[in-house]
Design a protein that fits this description.
The complex is a heterodimer. Chain A is an all-alpha fold. Helices cover 59% and strands 0% of the residues of chain A. Chain A is built from 2 helices and no strands. Chain A starts with a helix and ends in a 16-residue tail after the last helix. Chain B is an alpha+beta fold. The chains are: A mainly alpha, B alpha+beta.
């Protein structure tokens, strides 16, 4: 039963890390614009690389 | 609010207004540009017409192409753009113009004024939900170990250790995540009332207290898991409900901000641009040709024509001269005007209409949602039931007080209105997003409930049944040279009939030297003589006794005058929609402020037998009140300022996005596009939502009917109660999800 004393706190700490990560993401505004974020990945803005390497 | 003082300085520190052409669709936005500490400037805009990710990319690319633009980011959920740049404030106007060119309307707003208390509430609920979810999951893991241990003969010491761990997780979480319910229950009790949150708070607090006691004495009855899962489920319902409310309010806020407008005032010989609400009575206001008037006032000098369609519902403009009163919301079509702002007296048209609207809205405020009506009955019953159970087991049957209390707690948890709390919000969230995808904005969260089971639909004419703009009749058979000549002249005018001509012949070359005679027409000197276009008299055509409708005459040297006739086109699907409504057994009426001669043909074309013309705003309200008093459930569809009181008086109301700001504010639904079909969509969705809500309540009650007697009899442990409760919640959610199919 002694393992429990170690394993339960470990499980709790891991859970708390997850909770903390969620609360942080909430605070940093990552949930403010879910619709926009879903669409932004589809933008092919090549501004970073104005002259993309040509395919051979 | 701290922001108000800052706004004033921002507006007044503005350098002199730059020369900028007035345009009704593109008011000067520099008054809304905020100076940042690092010398940059930022502007918040609400964007209209965002439908997809592609729009976001287009808008951001167009904004970033402007010189000096540092950052431009669109929030697609709220449809707002925040742009930051280095340079003059006038870049804001260029930004709005650039967005207009790619087809997006942009309206500035002041973020300080739209306080986001709602979204903060929502965030704290989401945090509570996260904490409750974390605690519920971990306590459940420990509980599974305890149940397994119960079957396999776990030592008491181990069980107590696991109970202590559960307490360690659950108690802080209960304190934190339960606050929304404790607050609400406490404030209800303090005012001598009771609500749904009282039994929830009692159940949670009592369950936690008993469990803690059991843990301390090493007993088996610790039910931290029940208490925390209960909170978790309730928080889901509460969060969805709050979200629906915020979306509704955001829609209303957007409309409020759309009403925000800058006004050019003359102060000490210098022109300044200030937001309309900062204009004091007596100030001199300049209105450029084509600008929308932002205040009520009297014309000091100038001669022009005003487009008053949003206020009176008339399609044709009204001529104004010095001494005439003008109203906010009208558009100056002709020459520049100089106005004196009026006192904000009770005799202004706007306050008259607002007063009518407020009176009408009080009736609507009395509407109580089905969830509230049920919980009003439900909470006292639950309290009595739990109390009776406790007293019965303790005093009559003679059980010790701890087990008796435990049974009473199971009754509280079993009757917990989880499914009830989810029944309405889940359906509303799904229905609202379904309507949103079809371009219909739901502005108030009780709107869907009110829109169900309506039996009468009342339409306004101009801008509602019709498109609200004249179009040329028989454009195909018109003489092409005459049309081209007329359109060339018309290019220099903002008169609605001139715009209609230009729409028919968009390629016509604009010509120089066109003079506009307010209230009469256009003229241009040519080497051959004078070309005139305008009223019958202006073009020297004999008067006619018949009502000519909307017409323009073109007289050219040496040629017979040509007549162009116009009509306000009925929306393409109006007749179909009305036929469908009638087929569904719904009474349809038309009430318009326009002349009988203009209303009658539209009523005939749309297939409406019951119509009324020349109605004042008060007449419209009176008609709606008469219908409501006769026990009818009325849906009003209107767009003008004159419809706003009627919109507020109806059981439920719709208005197109082309409507006046006040009408949109008064309406419960705002729909996009040129079709009238949204009327049908709203009705259908509302009816289906109402059916689903009823089903959900039936499910929730049916479940209570079965479990409550078992709980009172003492056969339900809090654990079983928690599981049964979760199941009923899931069933309710699944039932609501059926709405998103089809």
């Amino acid at each position: 039963m002694e393992q429990l004393v170690i394993l339960i706190p470990i499980a709790l700490v891991l859970g708390l890390v997850g909770l903390g990560a969620f609360l942080w993401s909430l605070k940093s505004g990552q949930y403010d614009d879910l619709e926009g974020a879903a669409n932004r990945i589809l933008f092919d803005d090549d501004e970073d690389d104005p002259d993309p390497p040509k395919k051979r | 609010m701290a922001g108000t003082a800052a706004d004033t300085t921002i507006a007044l520190d503005r350098p002199k207004r730059r020369q900028w052409r007035g345009d009704p669709d593109r008011p000067d936005v520099t008054a809304y540009v905020i100076d940042l500490a690092d010398g940059r400037r930022t502007l918040h805009l609400m964007i209209e017409g965002i439908h997809c990710g592609g729009c976001v990319a287009k808008i951001e690319r167009a904004a970033k192409a402007l010189p000096g633009m540092v950052d431009a980011r669109v929030n697609m959920t709220t449809r707002r753009l925040t742009a930051t740049w280095d340079g003059a404030p006038s870049l804001g106007n260029e930004l709005v113009a650039a967005l207009g060119e790619i087809g997006f309307g942009a309206v500035p707003y002041d973020p300080e004024r739209l306080q986001q208390s709602d979204s903060q509430d929502e965030r704290s609920l989401l945090r509570a939900l996260a904490v409750a979810g974390f605690a519920a999951a971990n306590v459940m893991l420990l509980s599974v170990a305890i149940w397994a241990g119960h079957a396999q003969g776990m030592a008491e010491a181990t069980r107590t250790l696991l109970h202590w761990f559960s307490a360690l997780i659950a108690l802080p979480a209960l304190v934190y995540a339960g606050r929304p319910f404790y607050h609400s229950a406490w404030s209800a009790l303090r005012h001598g009332r009771t609500n749904m949150d009282v039994p929830i708070t009692l159940g949670v607090v009592l369950a936690a207290a008993i469990s803690l006691h059991e843990t301390i004495v090493g007993g088996p009855h610790a039910y931290f898991d029940s208490a925390i899962t209960l909170l978790f489920f309730l928080l889901i319902g509460r969060y969805l409900d709050r979200r629906a409310r915020r979306l509704a309010r955001a829609a209303a806020e957007r409309l409020l901000a759309l009403g925000a407008q800058s006004v050019t005032v003359l102060m000490g010989g210098e022109t300044r641009t200030v937001p309309a609400e900062q204009v004091a009575p007596g100030m001199t206001v300049l209105v450029a040709a084509g600008e929308r008037i932002g205040i009520d006032g009297t014309v000091e000098n100038g001669l022009s024509e005003l487009d008053t369609s949003l206020i009176t519902g008339e399609t044709l403009p009204r001529p104004v001269k010095a001494g005439d009163r003008v109203f906010a919301g009208t558009v100056n079509l002709g020459a520049p005007l100089r106005l004196t702002a009026d006192a904000v007296g009770d005799d202004t048209l706007l306050s008259e209409i607002v007063r009518l609207m407020e009176a009408a809205e009080q009736g609507k405020a009395r509407f109580v949602g089905i969830a509230d009506r049920i919980s009003r009955l439900y909470a006292p019953v639950v309290h009595l039931l739990a109390l009776g159970t406790f007293l019965g087991w303790w005093l009559i049957i003679g059980l010790a007080w701890q087990p008796a209390l435990l049974i009473a707690i199971s009754v509280l948890i079993v009757t917990c209105p989880c499914a009830l709390g989810l029944a309405v919000p889940v359906v509303q969230v799904i229905a609202t997003s379904r309507l949103m995808k079809r371009g219909i904005l739901v502005k108030s969260n009780s709107a869907l409930e009110r829109a169900a089971n309506i039996d009468t639909v009342v339409f306004d004419k101009t801008g509602t049944l019709t498109l609200g703009r004249p179009s040329l009749i028989d454009a195909d058979t018109a003489d092409p040279t005459a049309l081209a000549d007329a359109a060339s002249l018309a290019q220099s005018s903002r008169h609605p009939l001139a715009r209609a001509l230009v729409r028919e012949a968009p390629t016509a070359e604009p010509v120089d030297g066109v003079e506009e005679v307010p209230g009469q027409g256009l003229r241009r000197e040519t080497t051959d003589g004078e070309i005139r276009m305008g009223s019958r008299r202006f073009c020297g055509v004999a008067e006619d006794d018949r009502d000519p409708g909307m017409e323009l005459w073109l007289s050219r040297p040496g040629q017979a005058p040509v007549r162009f006739a116009f009509e306000d086109q009925v929306r393409s699907d109006a007749a179909d929609v009305i036929a469908t409504l009638k087929a569904q057994g719904i009474a349809v009426e038309l009430i318009s402020g326009d002349r009988t001669a203009a209303v009658e043909p539209v009523a005939r074309e749309a297939g409406i037998d019951q119509w009324q013309a020349a109605a004042t705003p008060a007449d419209k309200v009176a008609r709606l009140n008469a219908l409501t008093e006769a026990g009818r459930r009325v849906m009003m569809v209107g767009d003008g300022l004159n419809d706003a009181p009627a919109l507020a008086a109806a059981t439920v109301s719709l208005s197109p996005t082309s409507a006046s700001d006040i009408a949109q504010t008064a309406a419960d639904f705002v729909f996009q596009g040129e079709a009238l079909a949204p009327v049908l969509t709203v009705r259908q969705t509302a009816d289906r939502s109402a059916r689903l809500v009823t089903q959900n309540f039936a499910l929730a009650f049916g479940y209570n009917l079965i479990t409550v007697p078992i709980a009172v009899a003492g056969f339900v442990t809090p654990l079983i109660a928690a599981i049964a409760m979760s199941l009923s919640s899931i069933v309710v959610v699944m039932n609501a999800l059926r709405l998103s199919r089809r």
